[in-house]
Amino acid sequence: MKRHDYITWEEYFMGIALLSARRSKDPNTQVGACIVNKDNIILSTGYNGMPKGCSDDVLPWERDGSFQDTKYAYVCHAELNAILNSDGRSLADSILYVTCFPCNECAKAIIQAGIKKVVYLEDKYPDADATQVSRRLFKMADITLKEFLNPTFYSDLSLY
Ligand SMILES: Nc1ccn([C@H]2C[C@H](O)[C@@H](COP(=O)(O)O)O2)c(=O)n1
Ligand SMILES: [Zn+2]
């Protein structure tokens, strides 16, 4: 008889997003993303990090300071990296699994890429302007938003 306690597709893809986040060098917030098509095939993954060829030993990881001296000016977000890592595969009607709610810049890229659903784990900055703008854009663009809720699964895996 087959086993029945296997993980769901959602748990599997969010698990991959969580594992991707562990590649991030960001000392404060590690974010991972996984994009999947309607046949449950993984199209791409990504995590937040400095652009290719730009040393993450040289660029700043600080949160505070002048624009040029903080990470925010340089870091590529996990969602954008996942979109750019898709290597020409169509992302039309795909689903994005991401460990942190997308910012407004990523929301624009998500919409333009044709992603139709965003499953997120944590809404870390719910009151931030970037989050409010994202929610507004997702609503207008008819993107489905779903919060992923399954703390037991992740504490079992010690991934989160
Ligand atoms: N949806 C998101 C949100 C944030 N990030 C990245 C950008 C930074 O590397 C980090 C946030 O840093 P914090 O302000 O929390 O110190 O996470 C992302 O990739 N995707
Ligand atoms: Zn973003």
UniProtKB/TrEMBL annotation:
Domain of life: Bacteria
Keywords from the named record: Hydrolase, Metal-binding, Zinc
Residues covered by the CMP/dCMP-type deaminase domain: 8-132
CDD domains: deoxycytidylate_deaminase (cd01286)
InterPro entries: APOBEC/CMP_deaminase_Zn-bd (IPR016192), CMP_dCMP_dom (IPR002125), Cytidine_deaminase-like (IPR016193), dCMP_deaminase (IPR016473), dCMP_deaminase-rel (IPR015517), Deoxycytidylate_deaminase_dom (IPR035105)
Gene3D superfamilies per the UniProt record, alphabetical: Cytidine Deaminase, domain 2 (3.40.140.10)
Cofactor: Zn(2+)
Pfam families linked: dCMP_cyt_deam_1
Family the entry assigns: Belongs to the cytidine and deoxycytidylate deaminase family.
Record's protein name: dCMP deaminase family protein
